[in-house]
From TrEMBL:
GO terms for molecular function: glutamine synthetase activity. The keyword Transcription regulation does not apply. Residues 120-454 form the GS catalytic domain. InterPro entries: Gln_synt_N_sf, Gln_synth/guanido_kin_cat_dom, Gln_synth_cat_dom, Gln_synth_gly_rich_site. One of its GO terms (biological process) is glutamine biosynthetic process. Belongs to the glutamine synthetase family. The lineage of its organism: Bacteria, Pseudomonadati, Pseudomonadota, Alphaproteobacteria, Rhodospirillales. This is Glutamine synthetase. Pfam families: Gln-synt_C. It comes from Hypericibacter adhaerens. Keywords: Ligase, Magnesium. Its cofactor is Mg(2+).
Amino acid sequence: MDEGLPTTELQDYLRARPETRFVDALYVDLNGFVRGKRYPAAKAGKLYSGGMQMPEAHYILYATGDSVDPCGRGFSDGDPDCVTYPVPGSLAPVPWAAEPRAQLLMTQARSERPPHFVDPRQILRLAAERFAETGLKPMMAFELEFYLLDPAPDALGRPQSPIQPGTRQRLASMQTNSMEELDAFGSFLAEVDAACRAQNIPSSVACTEFATAQYEINLDHVDDPLLAADHAVLQRRVIKAVAQRHGMRASFMSKPFLDRNGSGTHIHVSLLDKAGRNVFDDGSELGSATLRHAVGGLQAAMAEAMAICSPNLNAFRRYGPNRFVPVNKSWGAQNRSVAFRIPGGSSQARRIEHRVAGADANPYLVAAALLASIQHGIENRLDPGAPAPSRNVSGEVDPDIPFTWQEAVDRLEQGTVLRQAIHPLYLQIYAAVKRGEHEQILSEIIPREYEWYL
């Protein structure tokens, strides 16, 4: 998006909602955090005509918000600006705002400096354009697990479950698919649904998950990976904002509790040919040869993609044997212990469920990694091997997969698959940011050091 868009979208919106006071211009950084600026509605037309100027380094901040010059970008280069423009169709109301407000997504315009983009949304766009060379169109949907928490920690500073609405008791049950729990938090879920509808986010089925106060709200499939990732980013924002309105905190942290299940990002993907036919469907439970080649590509790139699927120290706590979290490169039908699951149902909806990423992973970058991996597998006709048997296979840890943060970042830089679709310099920047975050975490003495070594 290299030039301003017509302001018709904004004009039509303000004509229909003249009470709007502000427009929030949002962008998403390397960590998947939503940042932005707030414009008076009368000034928002400038976003379309001239774009929003902002330091390019704000796309590659640490999780702490620090800008620390990864690969010489931020200080060494004089901290230059980049220009971002609105994403067409993203202008929507902010239902939870105290004053009438709108929001829109912004995306980076082309830069003269390589790589052309540090905007994760543009990283995905380039991967999707490359994938289009296959003649296939991805159908994609995200499933994000999250916890509802009390906004106040316990006496030891740890997160705790919220007080159940209508009672004075802290939620303690672990009832998966509990209708009673959905009813108890019904006003929260209803407001999430209403906010998603107002923002054209196709939220769907809600359920309680396999841990106390853990939930999932599905998103419908769309035939545009960029739009699917937009939906995931914006749904996370809705859930967090609405939870705060209800006196709770929503967390997409991968492993907030050591004794409870972690939260994942499960991505469902199928591929359509030019006639709109699902090429993964051959009438069988395991799918077509094309599906198997796609799985082979996901297997081939799994190790180098771990740093993107697990973007922080905590995310690696989610992995472990016998947790129904991937610890190997297995695949198979109707088996939640594998990394790449083939869900049941109509063969016309045959798809791959990618179960590797944590809920705090950046949806744009994970989707870009998936497209790169699948394309690699299809073009090279990779064989995924035999499917897993109908039993738990998550006790068999694959030594080739990096399950520590530092090792995963090393494997990302050493990899050969993702760099076919993601600029190698961006992968270096990503790795530099993650190494820097790791160093910042280690810069403080943790209590256990005193317990063990003082």
